[in-house]
Amino acid sequence: MPLLLSAATPATPPGAAELNLARAVLKQLVELDTSQTAGETTAAAEAVAARLREAGLPAADIQVVGPTAHKKNLVARLHGSGGRRPLLLLAHLDVVDARRADWSLDPFKLVERDGYFYGRGTQDDKSLAALWVAIVARLHREHAALDRDVILALTADEENGPDNGVTWLLGHERRLIDADLALTEGGGGELKGGRRLSLDVQPAEKSYVTFTIESKNKGGHSSLPEADNAIVHVAEAAARIHRHVFPLELGAITRAYFQRMADIEGGSVGADMRAVTATPPDAAAAARLSKTPLYNARLRTTCVPTQMQGGHAENALPQSARVTINCRVLPGHSADEVARALVGVIADPAVELAQIRSMDASPPSPLPAALLATIERAGAAVWPGTPVLPILLTGATDGRHLRAAGIPCYGLTGLFVDVDDIRAHGRDERLLVRSFIEAHDFLGRLVSALAVR
Ligand SMILES: [Zn+2]
Fold it and tell me: How far is the CA of 398 from the centre of ligand 1 (A)?
């Protein structure tokens, strides 16, 4: 009785065509190797351009642009009435290297198994790219009454490399991506043991800056040790830096984070979270929370030794020794401030501090109540009862370049990942298929709420 069956079963659930497109684009993107070693994003940008042309977008609204033949970016635009300035949907096309020998599956083949998508980029950041493509295609197909342009940008060299797509676009083709606000990676959803903890929105991130500490010495024969030793100077300085605790500082985002997280966590941890947001913060509660690396990193600037080199021969006194110090700096603080603090901690004139790369300062984006309410409404439609949590990202995304250029940016993907199963950059990277499907629903609602009048 096929007629009865089809009458009882909705033929195609709403959005199914776009979800199929999102899956197809994800497969295509994962299977195009865009790692640093491959050094190529152009093929992925071209593949998406072809998908968008197939979806009916005019060729004139689809650009594949970039500084070199291999590092191109895709930018596409849906035209709105111009009532408001554009909304930018951003994801990166490049991925961290993945070696076949390290993985139990081929990292550049999308495999669906046990409810997961496996493959390099499934968490970071090709799922988001594929979802943006499907949402843009749907808005176009539906002739959505946009009151602002919606811009899609899929870019190169977010992970590393000389041709960062966002920086290049801001510097060379800003008109293509200039926007009132942007959405990108860096805030997803937190799952723990199958429990949905929070839908995260990330309006700010820490800044990244790296120093070296170095000591030089005249050296000599190792059979005649002297009091002064370059390795010991640097090792002791590194140990002091490692033990140094930067001052506790709760900005508006981290304060809101701990206030909301207190209710989610409950118990003694929840009580500590509440106590740390008091004025003044409870020092004992802060010390207990700081034992968790993620909470510690949200509460203060951190600096940590990450690499070391020293000496030139097994049987010689070291003529030089050097340790790399990587710092993650709270918004509102400069690299110079951190350098001054480190010099004070080192407290050794035989050790010289040098900054080896510039810091991209990233002012926090405001999170107005109306925007937060819009996010909460879209979230509640898909995950009723799951709270929206503003977070300060302890890592870094391309959002910092947009913020520095005056474009407010929010890390907001709705992709739920188990907090104990984060495999971005790691082996056997994977994403729950269910997370992908639900994020498609959530982001579709959110983009409509932000751009359809
Ligand atoms: Zn990423």
Answer: 8
pLDDT category at 12 given cuts 50, 70, 90 is low
Task: Give the distance (Å) from ligand 1 centre to CA of residue 48.
Answer: 18
Distance from Cα 440 to the centre of ligand 1, integer Å: 18
pLDDT one-digit tens code per residue, 251-307 = 889 999 999 999 988 999 999 999 999 999 999 999 999 999 989 999 999 999 999
**From CA 359, how far away is CA 354, in angstroms rounded?**
13
User: Would the pLDDT of 248 be above 70?
Assistant: yes
For residue 389, how far is its CA from the centre of ligand 1 (angstroms)?
Answer: 20
Q: How far is the CA of 92 from the centre of ligand 1 (A)?
A: 7
Specify whether the backbone of 241 is left (phi greater than 0), alpha (psi in -120 to 50) or beta.
alpha
Would you tell me how many other CB atoms lie within 10 Å of the CB of residue 157? 25
What is the tens place of the pLDDT at every residue in 118-166?
999 999 999 999 999 999 999 999 999 999 999 999 999 999 889 999 9
DSSP line for 105-152: S-TTS-EEETTEEESTTTTTTHHHHHHHHHHHHHHHHTT--BSS-EEE
Tokens of 118: 């496996």
Q: Quote the ligand 1 centre to 89 CA distance (angstroms).
A: 14
Q: For 201-214, write each residue's pLDDT tens digit.
A: 999 999 999 999 99
Q: Rounded distance, CA 52 to CA 56, Å?
A: 6
One DSSP character per residue, 270-333 reads HHHHHHHTSSS--HHHHHHHTTSHHHHHHHS-EEEEEEEEE-S-TTEE-SEEEEEEEEEE-TT-
Q: What is the pLDDT of residue 360?
A: 82
In whole angstroms, what is the distance from residue 391 CA to residue 186 CA? 9
